[in-house]
Amino acid sequence: MRALVINCTLKPSPQPSNTEALAGTVVTALEGHGVAVDVVRAVDLNLKPGVRTDMGDGDDWPRVHEKLLSAQILVIASPTWLGRPSSVAQRVLERMDAMLSETDDQQRPVAYNRVAGVVVTGNEDGAHHVISEISGALGDIGFTIPGQAWTYWHLGPGPGPDYLDDDRGHDWSASTGRAMAANLVHVARALMDNPLPAPPS
């Protein structure tokens, strides 16, 4: 089983990413279930604006798309900015819009029989809003969203320290991340054994 984690931080490599650090707890848990995990930092790529799988010369999205189709589990990890997902997360979701019109050899939407979850960091309240926005978009595309397929970290409303700068709340976020990973893996296995059919015409 394979998983793809798309880190939607605004910070290009090699800057430390709070979002990647929290997502790392989920990666470790997934690997503990025998899942091979690939992590992509989207801001490092040239992801052109648009809603097609390939936006032409220099577009890096097609290789991310290939990774999406080779994975049974997708995790979108985003910081919270102004109470919303990052602009990078929105770009990733817009590019995934093309998957709505893509089908496999059994005429199933390509996101069918794949599961998805969300990781959110931020020093302000709004994590549940970000989780609901990203989960809703992934559900529209065709992913199955298991119960409690998310984890997050913040220290309440207003400005404050970053995840990497403060140990408070890490135990809860890590425990929730382990539950998230277990739920993603078990639902992915169930869909592998009993896949969804193509939607009725």
What does the model show?
- This protein has 201 residues and is α/β, with parallel strands linked by helices.
- Helix content is 37%, strand content 17%.
- It is built from five helices and six strands.
- Strands 1, 2, 3, 4, 5 and 6 form a six-stranded mixed β-sheet that branches.
- The model has no long low-confidence stretch (mean pLDDT 95).
SSE layout:
Layout (H helix, E strand, L loop, with lengths): L1 E6 L10 H15 L3 E6 L19 H10 L2 E9 L2 E2 L1 H10 L18 E7 L5 H15 L8 E4 L16 H24 L8
Parallel strand pairs: 1-2, 1-3, 3-5, 5-6
Antiparallel strand pairs: 3-4
What key phrases describe this protein's structure?
single chain, 201 residues, globular
Short summary of the structure?
With 201 residues, this protein is of the alpha/beta class. It contains 5 helices and 6 strands. Helix content is 37%, strand content 17%.
Indicate the overall shape. Answer: globular
Q: Helix coverage percent of residues? A: 25-40%
Q: How many helices in DSSP terms? A: 5
Could you name the ranges where pLDDT drops below 50 across 5 or more consecutive residues? none
Termini separation comes to 30 Å
Question: What amount of the residues lies in strands?
Answer: 15-25%
How many DSSP-defined strands?
Answer: 6
The overall pLDDT, averaged over residues, is 95
Helix-strand pattern, N to C? EHEHEEHEHEH
**What structural category arises from helix and sheet content?**
alpha/beta
Largest sheet: 6 strands, mixed
Radius of gyration based on Cα positions: 16 Å
